[in-house]
Design goal:
The model has no long low-confidence stretch (mean pLDDT about 95). The protein is elongated. About 40% of the residues lie in helices and about 20% in strands. The protein folds into three domains: about 110 residues, Tetrapyrrole methylase, N-terminal domain (Cobalt-precorrin-4 Transmethylase, domain 1), CATH 3.40.1010.10; about 110 residues, Methyltransferase, Cobalt-precorrin-4 Transmethylase, Domain 2, CATH 3.30.950; about 40 residues, no CATH class. A hairpin with a 7-residue loop joins strand 8 and strand 9. By secondary structure, it is an alpha/beta fold. It binds S-adenosylmethionine (SAM). S-adenosylmethionine binds next to helix 5, strand 7, strand 8 and strand 10.
């Protein structure tokens, strides 16, 4: 880590449960010359909890150049800086990009202090494929823009992750149902690491009903993890998919689809189309 060389530390902080603060984050925050924080009042509470007294300065990506320069001046003078956001990992739907970019451009070391991140935590408990995924951040606040974004993702095969504000959760789920269909599975990960932590995986249509029926589900912070598009595979049984996956490793797609259809009773064409779109 080397505090002897001026470094910008990008420090993750808890997303609810203060027990998730990593020891290395505490060490770094204790030793830097300045903490650049999204909201100084918020971060002051966190620092107070861990008994850390250090100079704090507000930093956003829309901060003026003088603020950015103020942070860089510490590095230029040989000091180190820690960047924190209100919760989780800075730069993940949070400020910091301009600062990291500028620090790297000036040749300073930029050091991650990894820790909590809501989307990673949500993905890890979503029960949806996690080998390939895309993170979309927040959807547009207005319905027109939101629908356009969702339509562009309609045939995206990778698992999709969204942050959403509680008061827009139901509207976004309803728009997702319109675009992705009611069968697509979604995991709502709400209030992670907090008292009312909820992880609920349901087909979109059922999740919409569940959220609509319980206003408590429209409170707090949430991540939506949406199953990727599986083409006709959505209607293919798990048994057929397993046979198809194994057979395509050994045989040409057409032959694999024909054999998997014989084994499982699924439609040969649907299996072939699925293999073409997903398995080659
Ligand atoms: N940088 C943060 C991170 O690493 O996760 C995210 C910051 S973003 C401004 C805030 C959004 O993250 C919330 O609106 C919510 O979608 C999600 N989020 C943050 N904390 C959460 C939690 N405890 N449970 C579920 N979602 C959370």
């Amino acid at each position: 880590m080397g505090l002897s060389t001026p470094s910008l530390f990008v420090v993750a902080t808890p997303i609810g449960n203060l027990g998730d603060m990593v020891p290395r984050a505490i060490e770094v925050l204790q030793s830097v010359s300045l903490v650049a924080a999204e909201d100084t009042r918020h971060s002051r509470q966190l620092l107070k909890h861990f008994d850390i007294s250090v100079r704090l300065q507000a930093y956003h990506d829309h901060s003026n150049d003088a603020d950015l320069d103020g942070v860089l001046a510490i590095l230029r003078g040989g000091g180190s800086v820690a960047l924190v956001s209100d919760a989780g990992t800075p730069l993940i739907s949070d400020p910091g990009y301009r600062l990291v970019d500028a620090a790297l451009s000036e040749g300073f070391a930029v050091v991650p202090i990894p820790g909590p991140c809501a989307m990673v935590a949500a993905l890890s408990v979503s029960g949806l494929p996690s080998n390939r995924f895309i993170f979309e951040g927040f959807l547009a606040a207005k319905q027109h823009g939101r629908l356009q974004q969702l339509q562009a993702l309609q045939r995206e095969p990778r698992t999709l992750l969204f942050y959403e504000a509680p008061h827009r959760l139901l509207a976004s789920l309803q728009d997702m149902q319109e675009v992705f269909g009611g069968e697509r599975r979604v995991t709502l990960a709400r209030e992670l690491t907090k008292l009312f932590e909820t992880v609920k995986r349901l087909p979109l249509a059922e999740l919409c009903e569940w959220v609509a029926a319980d206003s408590n589900q429209q409170r707090g912070e949430c991540v939506l993890v949406v199953e990727g598009y599986a083409g006709d595979g959505q209607k293919i049984s798990a048994e057929a998919l397993q046979a198809l996956t194994v057979l395509t490793e050994e045989l040409p797609l057409k032959q694999a689809a024909a054999l998997a259809a014989k084994i499982s009773g699924a439609k040969k064409n649907a299996l072939y189309k699925y293999a073409l779109e997903n398995l080659q």
